Amino acid sequence: MNKNWIFYTVMFLLLIVTTGAAAVFSYSEEETADAVSYKLADAERRAGGILLSADSMSVDKANAIILPEWKGRKQIAEWKEGETLEWSIDVTEQADYELSLGYYPLKGNGQPIEFLLYVDGKPISDPYAPFELNRLYYDEPGKLKRSGGNELRPKQLEGEVWLDTIVAAAGEMEDGPLQLSLTKGKHVIRLENVRESAAVDYIRLEKAVTAKAYENYKASQAAEASKSGDEAFITIQAEHAYAKSDSGLFPTTDRTSPLTTPYSPTLLRINTIGGSNWDVPGQWISYKFDVPADGWYKIGARYHQNEVKGSFVSRKLALDGQVPFQEMKAVRFPYALKWDILELGEETGEPYQFYLTKGEHELKLEVTLGDVAPAVQSVQQMVYDLNQIYRKIVMITGVNPDVYRDYEIEKSVPGLIQQFQKLSAQMTEEAAKLDEMSGQANAGSRTLKLLALQLNGFIDRPDQIPKRLENYKTNITALADWMLSAMKQPLELDYLYLASLNHEQPKAEAGLFAQGVHEIRAFAGSFFQNYDSMEGNEQADRSIQVWTGLGRDQAYVLKRLIDESFIPESGISVNLNLVGTSLVTAVMAGEGPDVNLFTSRGDTMNLAVRGALTPLDQYGEFAAMKQEYMDTAFIPYQYKGSTFAIPDDQEFFMLFYRKDVLQELGIEPPQTWEELLKIAPVLQNNNMQIGLPYENLDAFQLLTKGIGALNLFPTLLMQNGSGIYNAKEDGTRFDEPEAYNAFKQWTDFYNLYDYPLYKDDFNRFRTGEMPIVVSTYKLYTRLAAAAPEITGTWDMVPIPGKQRKDGTIDRSTGATGTASIILKDAKKKEDAWAFLQWFNRPEIQSQFVSELENEMGVLGRRVPANLISFESTNWSRAEQAKLTEQWKQVNEIPELPGGYYTSRNIDNAFREVVFQMGNARESLFYWNKDINEEIKRKRYEFGVEQ
Q1: How far is it, in rounded angstroms, from Cα 714 to Cα 511?
Q2: Do 271 and 476 touch, CB atoms closer than 8 A?
Q3: Helix (H) or strand (E) run with residue 96 in it
Q4: pLDDT one-digit tens code per residue, 755-788
Q5: Dihedral angle at the C-alpha atoms of 104, 109, 110, 114, nearest 10 degrees?
Q6: 236 φ, ψ to 5°?
Q7: Which residue has the higher pLDDT, 152 or 531?
């Protein structure tokens, strides 16, 4: 009996192995077709409305130049940054009008054209949220390039054509076109360019009309109803787009389903588009397709939407530039764990019918908040109101209220109970709408109901508010987090299709057997394919090893750029490796790379003093490259007269302030530290605080970050006319009177004015507890990405400084950052230098920064050290101006052997004064002696003194 059991078991296992092997080795991939090569066409002038051509501008008011001819059109305006366009118009009927422009984007940095709009002299747009005109992008035609058998995404090219765009409402929370309410009579329209350039042919004002309902649309086509389309099924591969609004809308890959076409179980194939990089309202993708005969058709899509759980995402559909009927303004794609098929209108019981004539047509899908837009806008206001109430309560109780004290909150905050009642009713109503909209309970409605319940508890028992204040704050954060997720509308498409009305709906997913075969093939292939590999061709004649210490997302972006640009240009293969903090250890063991990117300042110096790096200023191209950076940017990477690195980025302090809070208290943002000290009592009397930078040092920070942006001391030191090290760089300047003054000023912030030392800058600034914060500009990215409810209520400006005798303000500060290096033991130094030249080219740096933000959102935004590439980043022109103003006053600090002792002992002196109430002068001088002794010892150890 046992022998039979063993026999059948072995035979069953052999059958599985044989089936698996047959499935793997029987697979033969079909040759994928090249993408369709489209010829981009100029947008034509649409009929109707009030058309105002460029040559009809008010010449005495506008300063844009009129060109006789440009790209086939005559008498157009060349509209550059800072220039204005102005028209006087006569409106014959009072109505809401939509504004559109006919324009040709001029060559620039690849960003949208941004402008401010004025009607009769009154601004329509916020300077911090200007209107945008998109550019047009398309995939590079031809066969896709491959690396290791895996397809590489096509390069994104900008289309050089005339565009006609309806201006969309500005702001992340806004949805749909801008509508101008104009009365009958004369008006003046003024457009002020704030970013990029364009040639403008005309503007058009057209009365806003509501698209007809589906039933009316169908009835309007009744004359053609007898013409039903022949049996047809037309597939449009989603990755083969005709055009798109953003260079970040590149084709992607999917290996989860055997029905995704083109398909390979083991290799990466470009077969989908969208996902997390197609989720921002206003982004669009368009497709061209041919209809075989006049008639009625249905439209469907194979899609994947598994990110917005329990809800849906929306797209606006336009055919040949027009939304065919009202229901197409917000097409819902419901949540689905796996790939699914959606035929437009199927939720009504029968798919919508679209009447199309024979010939070529264009279909455009645009991201929209759709039906969820009112809810998001409502929740945004709720979160803002809840935070305002929290701040008013904290002004009375402080952030850590006494739970045994009755603050009589309901009397101290006028109208508090009424506000809670109003908000609770709004939340209950909005939660019901969300449940009805999605057909089930979802994260948003659950959070709203929880907060409404808590507010009802506060209404019944106001004395419980101080005890539950922290929980109240947590619930506000949860509601804000839902709002953030609802603003994102990710959708991945495999294909669209056009089908005759009686055609059967295609399958969304493979059957059990086909899916099983796919899984076996994918599993077997995983032994031969490393999908996380970033290696190049090791057998190539020219190959270099490149390490990077950034995250995996950043490394993938870099690898794509290398495959798409560097390798084809140079013929040098690159093996890219993602490493942590093991660079110095690996180099000392003789196992280091040829090039290391994003190297910390401490690691650069530790390797340079040990003779492990190649001086870069020995290369002839270095001098020209250096001109593209700030004057002091290379100082931390210089040693014994040589430069050993090229800066990747520089991170420095900026001042953040809440405009609404300061305005409420009658305070202006401080320009000097003296003004900051005058503000402090006003804020503290209202239980608010000021946040200054201070990092609790650990061994890693001591060795890697440098001293420039650890705390405020180097900033105050420079503004007092001193510095960290002397001219010979063999000791500090802390024995100077100016150094003592700076140190005393720094410690007094905490001893005399009780500024918080350890705090959460982001959350306290978000709630208004800390309306003034000095932090690095990276706080901006967190606020922009994760605090939309306070959009427009805060600003980022240069830090306070010290007023000079001539009245100007010295805002000098230090910085931190990373750099690129070539190891001394690099086998092919010339190839390594060629790579560094390529990576630090302005256009490559710009592309890297842009694609990183496409991949990671605003949180991935960087400030490249290269000044030319900085101009083309997604920072607005106003933000760039503020950053540049502070950047020009960044004085980099040299990195010396033993420099880690400077950071450590300055922190020791600070702690002695702040925590142990030590004497500032004695503490500074005592620890300064240890610093100088260590620097001297290290200089002797590395032969600097000899």
Answers
A1: 66
A2: no
A3: strand 95-105
A4: 998 899 999 999 999 999 999 999 999 998 888 8
A5: -60
A6: -115, 105
A7: 152
Distance CA 917, CA 890 (A): 32
The closest of 167, 165, 190 to 178, measured between CA atoms, is 167
What is the CA angle 778-782-783, rounded to 5? 110
**For residues 606 and 703, is the Cβ–Cβ distance under 8 A?**
yes
Residue 272 identity (one-letter amino acid): T
CB 262 within 8 A of CB 143: no
Q: Report pLDDT digits (tens) over 544-582.
A: 999 988 777 788 889 889 988 899 899 999 998 888 667
Question: Shortest CA distance to 70 belongs to which of 113, 106, 114?
Answer: 106
Put residue 188 in one of left, alpha, beta given phi > 0 → left and psi -120 to 50 → alpha: beta
Amino acid at 569: E
**How confident is the model over 201-249, as pLDDT tens digits?**
999 999 998 889 999 999 888 655 555 556 889 999 999 999 999 988 9
Cα separation, 235 vs 487, in Å, equals 30
| Distance in Å from the first CA to the final CA of the chain | 87
User: Quick count: other Cβ atoms within 10 Å of Cβ 277?
Assistant: 21
What are the backbone angles phi and psi of residue 750, rounded to the nearest 5°? -95, -35
Q: Return the beta strands (E) in 590-727 as ranges.
A: 595-600, 638-639, 642-643, 646-651, 653-658, 690-691
Structure tokens at 370: 């759709």
The answer to which of 625-634, 665-674, 843-852 has the lowest mean pLDDT is 843-852
Q: How many CB atoms lie within 10 A of CB 351?
A: 19
- Please write the tens of the pLDDT for every residue from 839-862: 999 999 998 998 888 777 787 888
Q: How far is the CA of 523 from the CAs of 147, 530, 867, in angstroms? A: 21, 12, 47
Distance separating alpha carbons of residues 931 and 120, to the nearest angstrom: 65
Helices (H), 613-771: 622-626, 659-665, 673-685, 699-704, 713-719, 737-751, 761-767
Q: What is the pLDDT of residue 581?
A: 66
Contact between 802 and 809 under an 8 Å Cβ cutoff? The reply is yes
Which residues are CB-contacts of 914 (< 8 A; sequence separation ≥ 6)? 747, 750, 751, 757
HSE at residue 422, side-chain half, CA atoms within 13 A, is: 11
CA distance 439 to 334: 10
Say how far apart CA 812 and CA 829 lie, in whole Å: 37
Residue 100 has pLDDT above 70, yes or no: yes
- Rounded Cα–Cα distance for residues 216 and 196 (Å): 42
- Which secondary-structure segment (H or E) carries 537? none
CB atoms within 10 A of CB 734: 27
For 679-715, what is each residue's pLDDT tens digit? 999 999 999 999 999 987 765 655 677 888 889 999 9
Alpha helices (runs of H) in 339-463, residue ranges in sequence order: 373-397, 409-412, 416-438, 443-460
Residue 10: alpha-carbon gap to chain centroid = 55
- Alpha-carbon distance of 743 to 714, in angstroms, equals 9
What pTM was computed for the model?
A: 0.86
Closest to 364 in 3D by CA, of 323, 416, 419, 417: 323
C-alpha R_g of the chain = 31
How confident is the model at residue 399, as a pLDDT?
Answer: 82
Q: Which residues contact 102 (CB under 8 A, 6 or more apart)?
A: 43, 45, 162, 163, 164, 200, 201, 202, 203, 204
Distance between CA atoms of 213 and 202, rounded to whole angstroms?
31
pLDDT at 528 over 80: no
For residue 534, the model assigns a pLDDT of 56
Task: Answer yes or no: are the C-beta atoms of 615 and 718 closer than 8 Å.
Answer: no
Q: Tell me: pLDDT of 533 over 80.
A: no
Pairing outcome for strands 270-275 and 251-253: antiparallel
Q: Which residues of 455-465 are buried (b: 16+ CB within 10 A; e: fewer)?
A: bebbeeebeeb
Helix, strand, coil percent values for the chain (each to nearest 5): 35, 25, 40
Mean pLDDT across the chain: 89
| Residue owning tokens 């190891």 | 823
